[in-house]
Amino acid sequence: LGDDKAIVSNIHGTTRDVIEDTIEINGVSFRFIDTAGIRKTTNTIENIGIERTFKKIDEASIIIWVIDKIPTDNEIISIVPQLDGKKIIIAFNKSDCIDNIKTEIESLKQIINKHSIRDSSIIELSAKQGTNISVLESIIYDVANIPEIKENDIIITNIRHYEALYSAHQNIKTLINGIKQNMGNELLSEELRQCIYNLGEIIGGTIKTEDTLESIFRNFCIGK
Q1: Class of the CATH domain delimited by 19-144
Q2: Rounded to 5 degrees, what angle do the CA atoms 32, 48, 62 make?
Q3: Distance CA 223, CA 154 (A)
Q4: 3-state secondary structure of 65
Q5: Which of 11, 61, 88, 136 could crosslink 120 through cysteines, CB 3.0-4.6 Å?
Q6: Which of 63, 70, 68, 113 is nearest to 88 (CA)?
Q7: Against a cut of 0.70, is the pTM above it?
Q8: In the chain, domain spans
């Protein structure tokens, strides 16, 4: 982020609260969530921070696992179940303090293969000196697999509009399936009415039953 967001020290367990902020990479906003490190501890408050770490791992799509030494088998085993289905970037930090960083990276690759950690990338960096930060950003963007946006593509930027369109799409799918299954007209009309309502949430006008009846009585001769 290029800014001091928290107190950093060489004392283990000082990061306990979840710290969040967003940055743009190639025009796309990414929300970064920094959490407590995962380790065994008897400190009650730190354990609460670690519990929050696992919760945020579940919510995230991409995991940046920051290490400054080769993790032990037990450390890897404790976190691997949380990484299932996630895209993982292993950031080997403090490369400026490690003389044989290339050898360490090769050892790390062997351990990763041993534990079958899939969808993972490894990068060496130095947060202190800013080494390979731009490379890390590129990896994050690539791993996110952002689809290419073309000039004529329709982009929904409003969450309310997205939810309304999604609901209308579900109504249409249900309607089509209902027609194929010869559902009653009253059920089909209700699904169509709900679809029109959801679309009306976007354009700002909803066709109500009263509007339909008023139009019928105004424009047609109704026999009694």
Answers
A1: alpha beta
A2: 25
A3: 47
A4: strand
A5: 88
A6: 63
A7: no
A8: 19-144, 159-219
